[in-house]
Specification:
It is built from 11 helices and no strands. The chain is mostly helical and 241 residues long. α4 crosses α5 and α5 packs across α7.
């Protein structure tokens, strides 16, 4: 293979990731994509014979090693990856990074736990019936009330995280949001944490486009638009097809 063709084949693996026609790459994919790039690029070190290409590959490997050294400890990337039912722990090689991310997720889930709602007051007929049966059921009712009052949000969150990790991985082509929608009743705390994580994209392009659109809306001839109206116009411009 010629020098030019070999260089092109190396750059194509980067272009293949950054030139997708679908939606923007989400943060939950970044750990796996970066590790994949490192692996494929490192494999080229043993196959190239042209000196200039060898130097190029070595420079790429060295730069990625420095850039991705502690990527697993990135809060956003680690949490989004673990909460993606397609990947979970597969993208990690450092057990400590997994444990720290799971602790943060458990703490966030525990913070979403709200006190159980109080039961509605019984109707008149129910009061009479309960008075007749209260002596029989008092022991059970007291124990049930005590168990409910002793519930620990942190323990509930940890149990949800453990149960979630025991679920089998879904296929990479499947929609993780559809999976979470189907499992919302099973993992009521985690699904609230997920809503603020899996929506994160791994690029600043969308926000930069919004800034550009803002400059097109708020011009010298339209400089008296109120902040509220400007926000509405930007929202519609960014979200309407």
């Amino acid at each position: 293979m010629s020098d030019t063709r070999k260089r092109s084949s190396i750059w194509l693996q980067f272009k293949d990731i950054g030139n997708k026609k679908a939606d923007y790459v989400t943060a939950s994919k970044m750990l796996l994509l970066c590790k994949g790039l490192q692996l494929v690029t490192a494999e080229n070190q043993w196959t190239v014979t042209v000196q200039k290409v060898k130097e190029l590959v070595a420079a790429l490997c060295s730069a990625m090693d420095r850039k991705f050294l502690r990527m697993e400890y990135n809060t956003v990337l680690s949490e989004t990856t673990l909460l993606d039912p397609r990947f979970k722990k597969l993208a990690f090689s450092d057990r400590r990074a997994v444990d720290e991310a799971l602790q943060r997720i458990s703490a966030a889930a525990a913070a979403k736990c709200t006190p159980s709602s109080q039961p509605a007051p019984p109707l008149q007929g129910q009061v009479e019936e309960e008075q007749q049966t209260s002596a029989v059921w008092r022991l059970f009712d007291d124990r049930a009330t005590g168990d409910a009052s002793r519930r620990n949000p942190t323990a509930d969150a940890i149990m949800e995280v453990r149960s979630y990790l025991e679920e089998p991985l879904i296929q990479r082509a499947e929609d993780p949001l559809s999976w979470w929608q189907a499992k919302a009743s099973v993992f009521p705390l985690l699904v609230k944490v997920m809503e603020g994580r899996l929506c994160i994209v791994a690029t600043s392009v969308p926000s930069e486009r919004i800034f550009s659109k803002t400059g097109q809306i708020l011009t010298e001839r339209r400089n008296r638009i109120s902040p509220s109206k400007l926000r509405h116009l930007i929202f519609l411009n960014a979200n309407l097809p």
